[in-house]
Write a structure and sequence with these properties.
There is one protein chain. The protein contains 6 helices and 4 strands; from the N terminus they run ααααβαβββα. The protein is α+β, with helices and mostly antiparallel strands. It has a 4-stranded mixed beta sheet, covered by helices on one side. A hairpin with a 2-residue loop joins strand 3 and strand 4.
Length: 167
């Protein structure tokens, strides 16, 4: 299981967007130092496309004159990047020690059951992605759940259902 940075992931657009090399090139050109700014380019591309499919990774590698293995290595190393489409809202259940002990795993099980997707999955309507985080740095709020950029504290399965209903 990969750790998750405590930042919001970009939401995937409701409909799949055609990959546009010219648009990607413009994104790469936005980076002041594109050659050493691979992570920044990947971040921009993921924000634009919602995720980083192999075709986008290949375009980035070609445009930045980098081996595809280097681009793919960065994409797969950082849990912030996704190679599969994400939902409109990303739900991350913290599974750091404090959150795990205080019910984080129970929240993951509840989410998987109610959303009908496993961790890393996206609901059929693409509204929610289900994910876990190793620690979001909010141990005093355990168990904590992040939906997009918002941290919810002392979450129970019932409270999680109520919070989800707001989205």
């Amino acid at each position: 299981m990969k750790s998750v940075a405590p930042t919001a992931g970009p939401a995937c657009p409701p409909e799949k967007e055609e990959l546009n090399e010219a648009r990607l090139a413009a994104l790469i050109n936005e980076c002041p130092d594109a050659r050493s700014g691979l992570i920044q380019v990947l971040h921009l591309a993921q924000t634009n496309y919602g995720y980083l499919p192999l075709s986008v990774q290949k375009m980035i590698a070609a445009r930045m004159s980098l081996p595809l293995s280097q681009v793919a290595g960065v994409v797969t190393f950082y849990s912030f990047f996704s190679t599969v489409p994400r939902g409109e809202h990303i739900i991350r259940v913290c599974l750091g020690t404090a959150c795990y002990i205080r019910g984080g795993k129970r929240l993951v099980d509840h989410l998987e059951e109610t959303l009908g997707v496993a961790v890393g999955g996206v609901t059929e309507d693409r509204k929610f992605s289900c994910d876990v985080a190793r620690c979001i740095g909010a141990c005093g709020l355990a168990p904590a759940v992040m939906i997009d950029d918002v941290v919810h504290k002392q979450v129970t399965p019932a409270k999680l259902d109520a919070i989800r209903a707001e989205y």
